[in-house]
Amino acid sequence: MTQPLLANKVAVVTGAAQGIGQEIARALHDQGARVVLADLDGDAAQRAAAEIDGGKGNCSGVACDVTSEEQVRALVEGAVGEHGHLDVFVNNAGITRDKSLRKMSVADFDAVITVHLRGTWLGVREASAVMREQKSGSIVNISSLSGKSGNPGQTNYSAAKAGIVGLTKAAAKEVAHHNIRINAIQPGLIRTPMTAAMSPEVFAEREAAVPMKRAGEPAEVAGAVVFLASELSSYITGSVIEVGGGRYM
């Protein structure tokens, strides 16, 4: 029997209680990793972990505010303390506060920038500090095609997701000589609770703009994460993979 791609690996996924984050955690677990699911809603993270793992002890859920330096550090230290090492860290946590320029408040802008950019930066910094000592590790940052093309009503979100690409490339250059790889994924239109809130007309319009003529599934984003987390991508760093059905190519 072929060994799973991530056998004996330890992974942390932020924003993992639902949607794309939960599917990423599921895919990493299915490939043999022990996974820590982190989310602002710790109870939901624990429920997601139990659902994925069936109570076997290979998944755990914890509360974490990714904007807090202390909590992100505690998340990493807790994973290492429980499992002995950290091999994969996925910065997935995010929020939206969509409004037009005229209606968007400074608080709306700052909230989105802080969760996405500061949260990702803290995850990269804390995870890479551990991986530097191990001389190995893979960090995957979840950006968005909104950061490539820009979406009306998302000046905050598009700016944050574009910033994640720059952060990814700069950090990848800093730590590559320690055998740490840092890459980003840009999902397009994916069926999640967030896109389910769109009106059917808007969703259909956006789906029609995708060359593959369909929305993606969270598992399809998770598959790209598994690839970047595994040794299949051992010579890939500072890269951005678009998972968008060909949109904006």
From TrEMBL:
PROSITE patterns in the cross-refs: ADH_SHORT
GO biological process assignments: fatty acid elongation
Record GO terms (molecular function): 3-oxoacyl-[acyl-carrier-protein] reductase (NADPH) activity
Protein's UniProt keywords contain NADP: yes
InterPro entries: KR_dom (IPR057326), NAD(P)-bd_dom_sf (IPR036291), Sc_DH/Rdtase_CS (IPR020904), SDR_fam (IPR002347)
Domain Ketoreductase: 9-206
Keyword vocabulary terms for this entry: NADP, Oxidoreductase
Enzyme Commission number(s) of this protein: 1.1.1.100
Protein name per the record: 3-oxoacyl-ACP reductase FabG
